[in-house]
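Subject: two folds for Thursday's group meeting

Dear M.,

Sorry for the delay on this. The cluster queue was jammed most of the week, so I only got both jobs back this morning. I'm pasting them in the order they finished. Each block is the input sequence followed by the predicted structure tokens. Could you check whether the formatting survives your parser before we put anything on slides? The first protein is the one we discussed after the seminar.
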Amino acid sequence: MGERFAMSWRRASEMVDTGRDASAPRILVDDVWKSFGPRAVLQGVSLSVAAGDVLCIIGPSGGGKSTLLRCINHLEVVDAGRVCLDGELVGYALRAGRLYEQTESEIRRMRSEIGMVFQSFNLFPHMTVLENVMEGPVRVRRQSKSEARDLAKGLLERVGLGGRSNDYPDRLSGGQQQRVAIARALAMQPKVMLFDEPTSALDPEVSGEVLVVMEQLAADGMTMIVVTHEVGFASEAGDRVIFMDQGMVVEEGEAKAVLTDPAEPRTREFLRRVG
């Protein structure tokens, strides 16, 4: 692991320290490794996502999908490899040819550009729906409360909850709470949205309302990485699909091709079981 880490730092240090690279993909994951104790959860994962594309990640439980998302926004620190947003390292800064760990304020700035929606809704129960969506812009982006309120109201309309802004989360269904969570992430005006199985905690009859919002985001050009078990969504909204198993990318390709005619036996077996 130490040798891989040193190689990844040398590779990152070769990047030109001139700010955003206009030719870079929106998200680059390059040879990322992550272990928890003796268990290797990610083993040399690489992928890239262009601005405006939707990448769906499928695979069995325990395959490393959620950990990958957490590494992308630096909720988990990679053991080796690198993650870049618009050509800028996530978690580290390159200065005068040397790598330094980012400060907490720098990490918060990078995270503010990477929205994330979890399986659980994580709304503040003591705040109204409107206040939940306003919180990030006011506290992190330092917007005025009037600006944040106007933004939040518009986003709640966008996710179909304009009439529920004064309700508290416990008055909402699971699907409605998840739509508030999406609006809250969008309020930070991120460059990319990460979704970690956003419908897995929902009853089937309400998961559709969340998927409709996500499909609209995809149609509007939002860059998205979606860990999902919803094969139909991946086929309709995804540009590309990755199948992960045992911490590795087993297969990657155009969404409909992978989902209808996968090349790898492990992918075929997984799709047979979930289909």
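Second protein, same layout:
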Amino acid sequence: MDPVTNFEKYTVAPGQWQDEPVMVLRDNGSGSIAMIAPGLGSNCVSWTIQYEAQEVAVIETPNSPQVLRDRASRAGVPVLFPFPGRVRDARYSYRGKEYQLPANDKSGVHHIHGVVLNTGWEVGEYGSSEEGASLTLQVGPQNLLPDFHQGYPFDFLLSLRFVLRERRLIYNITLENREKDTPIPFGFGIHPYFKVPLIPNEVAPDRSDCPVQISARTHWPAPDGIPTGPAQPLPEDKNFSEMRRLGTEAFDDMFGDAFYQDGWTVASYQSPGTGLETRIRADQNFQDWVLFTPPNRPSLAIEPYTCPPNAINSAPEGLPGSNLLTLDPGQTWQAQVVLEVL
């Protein structure tokens, strides 16, 4: 396909980011530009918009491709499948069989964030139309590193179709179960690191002054990133069900019982002094949220999950509300997440 498309307003073309191959989606009318790195787990390593004649970074871009090779969930927008969050002891049992995943979290004990963010994805169709600049990337078991494939040895095809239009980046997610007779277990999430505030100023010099809202009613007790009991009513200091200042507290918190308006669960943060609000909308497949404040970095991760961490082990551990999904052979699952700046 011709990398420069027929619609002059929107273009999609191969490019380079510090010598790393990327696909560059552009809305030439609004000046919005997104860079997706297929070889780095389909990570959106950059998304910028135009605001008052200046280029503004929405996503915290990694310092280099090597940062993501060393730690794939470090920055950008990592894709989390089939296990968003941690899996206790990097082990799980499914249909009477035990599986061992790489113990790749900081502790070296647990697995974290699934099997597709450490590998290269295949570039599918790309082009433009009235809806915007679009790109499809796909990954399957043939793309996985051996120890990740061993830990999740199911036949699947995961496709992401990105659409960029104005100040909106859409993730259209499709999963196919290509097994002949085995349902596959899974969850899905994305891990966007947003630049916060979008434009530092006297009103909001750092992220502590940015109001945050998350459409969730409960909080998971998870001191080590893995739920230890049922989700609880929101404590006052972690209640973001209505917009409130983030403050200086460090967060790595899991929220459950997402609530919806017009079919979407929504989280957002505001950049005071600019009138800009960054919003994440996820459809009704998504039941949980994670809020993470990376230490000593001007960013904020607000992550929509279809299930809480360790959902694959919730039933054996006696925890309710796992929201673990399964997909029957030959069936397809679809979901959507929208990132937008208003």
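Two things I noticed about the second structure. Confidence is low (pLDDT under 50) at residues 1-6. The longest helix spans residues 65-70.

Cheers,
T.
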